[in-house]
Amino acid sequence: MKTNLSPSDIVSFFSSDFHLEGDITSINDIRIEGEIRGDISAKKKIIIGESGKVLGDIEAADVVLLGEVKGKVVASNRLTIGKNAFFQGMAYTDNIQVEIGAKMEAGIQKFSKQVAGGNLQLSVKPGSLLDHSQKSKVLTKDQEVDTAIASVS
Hints:
The protein has strands spanning about 10-15, 20, 25, 30, 35, 40, 45-50, 55, 60-65, 70-80, 85-95, 95-100, 105-110. By secondary structure, it is an all-beta fold. Strands 1, 2, 3, 4, 5, 6, 7, 8, 9, 10, 11, 12 and 13 form a 13-stranded parallel β-sheet that branches.
């Protein structure tokens, strides 16, 4: 029996032993279980799995964080942060779900179309947690961070 998959049914999967320094862009869904040092964008959904680590910006309609992320996250539809996730950065969305237990040091702002597509530049003090010039410095889950509960207004 032959199964026909349309291009929109395909998910790009990066396994736990996958490491990349560079940007990823896709029209399909993306699931990251490995480590990416660069920006990721997709038209539909990006999932950072429990073993996934991203140091860079993420942009998609739906974003699910289950692993570690340091950077800007733009979710035009929905952002979900799982109970075991570790997120440092800035989130832009109109719809956010943060599970109890998630570790965050993040700001949250309402999504606007001006944010999408890289039109936003964050002002960051050198050496701060959001300073992307120090890409080799990644915090681990063992380090203490403040937990934040926030709402989008």
